[in-house]
Amino acid sequence: MSDSTLWWLLAGSAVALELFTGTFYLLMLAVGMAAAALAAHAGAGTAVQLVCAAVVGTAAVVGWYAIKKRNPADPSVRSMRSVNLDVGEIIQVDDWLPDGTASVKYRGAQWSVVQRPGNAPVPGAYRVAELVGNRLLVEKV
After folding, report:
1. pLDDT tens string 50-99
2. Cβ pair 33, 11 in contact under 8 A
3. Residue 87 contacts residue 128 (beta carbons within 8 Å)
4. What percent of the chain has pLDDT over 90?
5. DSSP state, residue 76
6. CB neighbours of 42 closer than 8 A, spacing ≥ 6?
7. Distance from C-alpha of 96 to C-alpha of 103, rounded to nearest angstrom
8. Cα dihedral value 43, 44, 50, 53, nearest 10
9. Residues contacting 124, CB < 8 A, separation 6+
């Protein structure tokens, strides 16, 4: 079996493994393996193929990490009104407990309420920002 065939099989295996795990970084490593396969097609030695796979794969991973770090993250699905109809609703909090939570009657049931960090716990009207587990995360109106 030629070196290039081995590199192509490794690259295909990395892509298949990425489909099962969902880690995009495996695709970047597969790009490095494909670069090594192209180097093998060009007649490069084993050492050059390994260096090519390592350099291109590492550069692709670092490049993708930099792109992901620079772009802001998508908003949490838990805070999207189209996914959760409670988001945006107004509730009345009468008193806060010392641990920073409150209990309110909402939609016919008792709910535990927490507020976004950095806000003072004062009674009043609050808007539901998102659901975190079985708690309502709220912000002052």
Report:
1. 999 999 999 999 998 998 888 877 677 767 777 778 888 999 999 999 88
2. yes
3. yes
4. 62
5. P
6. none
7. 8
8. -70
9. 92, 93, 140, 141
Altogether, the residues listed in the chain come to a count of 141
CB-CB contact of 127 with 89 (8 Å): yes
How does residue 12 score in pLDDT terms, banded at 50, 70 and 90? very high
Rg of the chain's alpha carbons, rounded to an integer?
26
Three-state DSSP class for residue 61 = helix
Residue type, 3: D
CA 44 from chain center: how many Å? Answer: 38
> Which tokens in the block code for residue 14?
């990395």
Q: Which residues share a beta bridge with 68?
A: none
Give kind and range of the element (H or E) at residue 138: strand 135-140
